[in-house]
Design a protein that fits this description.
The protein is of the alpha+beta class. It is built from two helices and nine strands; from the N terminus they run αβββββββββα. α1 (10-29) runs antiparallel to α2 (169-195). The longest helix is centred in the C-terminal third of the chain and has 27 residues, at 169-195. It starts with 9 loop residues before the first helix and ends in a 9-residue tail after the last helix. Bound molecules: copper (II) ion. Copper (II) ion is lined by residues 45, 49, 74, 119, 121-122, 127.
């Protein structure tokens, strides 16, 4: 195909297409509230001896896969270290299962709650995290525990409501595309009016 670039408002069509794509993304991603809680999540143990991400939120009945992404040897323990609790079953995440890069284990979380976890080797370096199952609205009951500088700190349950559900990134990307398309369309219309033959506006 050898479509010559004509002076037709083809760029305008492009701009409209960009805007339409953006609008589609907005509509497509603006699903029901609460969609931010996924049914599964992956947490990587990195070479820097951190969990990435260190906090995730999943739906009740969902799963979390812990993966050795670097540094090797990141066995997972439930609770705050040591020795942790047995709130979730980490029997597939022991040293034998989590020794080399690429090793992984998957834990199912049937009940809502807040589940701290730690790397049994690197917890003292701050390799800890928290899995929230459910909306995070305190349905776990009891105090949430976090570690601060290796010392377990128990914080009382907060009475504050959970943060409002956010929109996924793609939602805002959609709006961005939409705005870009609209701007492009305006710019092309302005250019067209200015330079198109037949519009002999006086030039300064
Ligand atoms: Cu580790």
């Amino acid at each position: 195909m050898s479509l010559a670039v004509r002076r037709s408002p083809r760029p305008l069509a492009l701009a409209v297409a960009v805007a339409a794509l953006g609008a589609l993304l907005v509509v497509g991603s603006g699903g029901p509230a609460g969609a931010q809680a996924k049914s599964s999540a992956e947490i990587d143990g990195t070479a820097a001896n951190k969990w990435q991400p260190s906090t995730v939120t999943i739906k009740p009945g969902g799963t979390v896969t812990f993966k050795v992404a670097g540094g090797a040897t990141h066995p997972v323990g439930s609770g705050t270290a040591p020795p942790g609790d047995k709130k979730f079953d980490a029997s597939d995440c022991t040293l034998a299962h989590m020794t080399k890069v690429g090793d992984s284990c998957t834990v199912k979380f049937p009940k809502a709650g807040t589940y701290p976890f730690f790397c049994e080797v690197h917890y003292a370096l701050g390799m800890t995290g928290t899995i929230t199952v459910g909306s995070g609205g305190g349905s776990g009951g009891g105090a949430a525990t976090t570690t601060s500088g290796g010392v377990p700190v128990v914080t009382s349950p907060s009475a504050a409501p959970p943060p409002p559900p956010g929109h996924p990134v793609i939602y805002w990307a959609g709006w961005g595309l939409f705005a870009l398309g609209a701007l492009l369309a305006l710019a092309f219309i302005a250019l067209y009016v200015r330079f198109a033959p037949g519009f002999n506006r006086p030039r300064r």
